[in-house]
Amino acid sequence: MKDIKNPVYVTEPILPNMADLEQEIKEIFETKWITNHGVKHDLLENKLQKILKVPNVSIFNNGTIALLTALKALNLPIGSEVITSPFTFPATPHSISWNGLKPVFCDIEPYTMTIDTEKIESLITNNTSAILPVHVYGFPCDVENIDKIAKSYDLNVIYDAAHCFNTEINGKGIGKFGDISMFSFHATKLYNTFEGGCLTYNDHEMKKKIYYLRNFGIKNEEEIVDIGINGKMNEIQASIGLLNLKLFKNEQMKRSNIKKIYLDNLNEIEGIRIPKMPKNATDSFQFFPIVIEDNFSLSRDQLYEELKKHNIFTRKYFYPICSDYKPYKNIESSSVSNLPVANDIKKRVLCLPYFGDLDHEIVIRICKIIMRLNNQ
Ligand code: T4K
């Protein structure tokens, strides 16, 4: 089998056409308006509102600051508990902690790897203020059940939707569920503004609150009305965002072709499970995770190392899980007995290279290597 010469990474960003970007930058240089809610910033917010099919969008300099701001905007009592998934990026529980709130980890279900809604209620106490589920890899959480639980216990719901740009559930933008959702526009995401992110929400009243929080709490030159932060997206980021809006659908189409090749070649391999998108949701094509079962010849870690020898750099998203991190490992909900599924999945999951420009020959080669390793 021919070697893969250049390293293949888990993802590659879409990039705007250089000449188009130069034109955008020229306009910015002419006006000298480079940040603080500029023309391109506002245009991007408007366009995203339509694309994401949501009533309100506020864009940010990155997804983590957006998530911090979402929690702040809801005025959750300091010291109260927020139930979340441990199977996520550090930004999720850290945003809870940075707000003076306490993360409480709930186990995940094994198929979509999102929060197990059957296990949420047993974690609710008098001190619970919110649920922060994660649509991990773009697999939607059980939004209906979460909504029911939140209503019956009067809890807020903030979704970490970092992985599901343009996902719809039953034709509805995924950002319409819960009180607030956060999308990330980081370089590693299907749609990027280099760094960036946004919040989406239904309550129009929230727009002003979030606007102030994003800009130091400044209402006008003489009034500071809230304890805000600097979460503003600058005009270069916004320009990249506007240009990448023209590219992400094509990227999704290219990734869907790559997904087909992976499915055709990996479906038959014993010991490899490929999680499926629920029928009522569209795929964002963010990641391509596989789950290594006991009857595969190698462990996930062995497979990861073997693929590296072939210049294929997969990622163990998400290993370790958040309940393993130093700041969280001693909290009660981090016990392995509370999180059996997350602790099992963290040892089995592997995200394969997945981006539009990935050569189809290389995808086939990756599959063949995996097949050969299983038959050794
Ligand atoms: N919630 C969830 C569930 C998240 O997954 C994330 C971010 C957030 C919240 C927070 O959103 P942001 O504040 O980031 O907007 C990456 C990203 O840094 C992070 O944004 C992302 N999740 C996470 C899943 O992945 P690393 O440390 O794995 O990235 P890195 O630098 O190792 O890059 C991975 C691969 O991507 C590289 O091997 C090659 C490729 N890459 C990366 C960069 C940065 C490029 O081709 N170009 C690039 O510029 O965290």
Ions, cofactors and other bound molecules: ligand T4K
CATH class of the largest domain: Alpha Beta
Cα distance spanning the termini:
15 Å
CATH superfamily of the largest domain: Type I PLP-dependent aspartate aminotransferase-like (Major domain)
Work out the helix count: 11
User: Would you give the CATH topology of the largest domain?
Assistant: Aspartate Aminotransferase, domain 2
Radius of gyration: 21 Å
Low-confidence stretches: none
Helix content: 25-40%
The total beta strand count reads 14
Average pLDDT, all residues: 97
- What amount of the residues lies in strands? 5-15%
Order of helices and strands: HHEHEHEEHEEEEEHEEHHEEHHEH
Outline, from the CA principal axes?
Answer: globular
Order of strands across the main sheet? 1-9-8-5-4-2-3
CATH architecture of the largest domain: 3-Layer(aba) Sandwich
What class would the helix/strand composition place it in? alpha/beta
Task: Put the structure in a nutshell.
By secondary structure, the protein is an alpha/beta fold. Helices cover 34% and strands 14% of the residues. Helix 2 packs parallel to helix 7 (235-245) and helix 8 (248-266) runs parallel beside helix 11.
Walk me through what this model shows:
- The protein has 376 residues and is α/β, with parallel strands linked by helices.
- It folds into 2 domains: 18-244, Type I PLP-dependent aspartate aminotransferase-like (Major domain) (Aspartate Aminotransferase, domain 2), CATH 3.40.640.10; 248-375, Aspartate Aminotransferase, domain 1 (Alpha-Beta Complex).
- Helix content is 34%, strand content 14%.
- The chain is built from 11 helices and 14 strands.
- Strand 10 and strand 11 form a beta hairpin.
- Helix 8 runs parallel beside helix 11.
- The longest helix has 19 residues, at 248-266.
- It is globular and about 70 Å long.
- It starts with 17 loop residues before the first helix and ends with a helix.
- 44% of the residues are buried.
- The mean pLDDT is 97.
- The protein binds ligand T4K.
- The site of ligand T4K has 23 residues, from helix 3 and helix 4.
